[in-house]
Amino acid sequence: MLVAAAVCPHPPLLVPDLAAGAAAELDGLRAACDAALASLLAADVDLLVVVGGAPATGPFPSGAWGSLASYGVNIPVPAHSAPRSCNGGSDSVPPTLPLSLTIGRWLLDRQDSAPAEPVLVGVNADADAMTCASLGATLADGAPRVAMLAMGDASARRSLRGPGYLDERAAPYDEVVARALAGADTAALLTLDPAVSAELLVAGRAAWQVLAGAAEGGSWSAEVTYDEAPYGVTYLVATWIRTA
Q: Nearest to residue 200, comparing CAs of 239, 149, 165, 160?
């Protein structure tokens, strides 16, 4: 049963070494993510699941790791996951985690109480709401007390300088998501349209709908603790704690 959840975005610039001189610009977002993760880990859970966008839907194997090398800094995530030999041979095991789960692991590694091996689950950006909700319900049944970290940015089309230029639909879309997260409104999250979400360059739609499927039917104390759009991309941080 899902007992706690957190929602965080996954911009690479969250990592200070990558952001360099611009690191301070996201101090507030970094602090909000840290606080959300601390709340999540304080829930005394048996299983922690991290869900994020990926090329395919399904779990990653134990020991899977990610890298930020393609963003300019050769940082393995988790930190101890340097390339290693496979079965004693000369080939190294490559990083396989997508950006969403790489940043999710990086955020968890900042917490002293984080489990060494959370369950990492990818969800394809094209997955429909029913598929996402079904996956969420299955993950919530994985243990008596389950926590979920759902990774994903909202629209990247909030300004003329945003990655996708300005789209007038972006702000109303993000407002719907923020209200749904603030009210733990699973029905509203499940109505988000995959096609519109893709047009607005929303990276978190599928992960939010996995969370909705995991949380459906519960009673929640919910709060959005960060809602800003620096760089033309909306970043939302939220926490859900089961109340009954």
A: 165
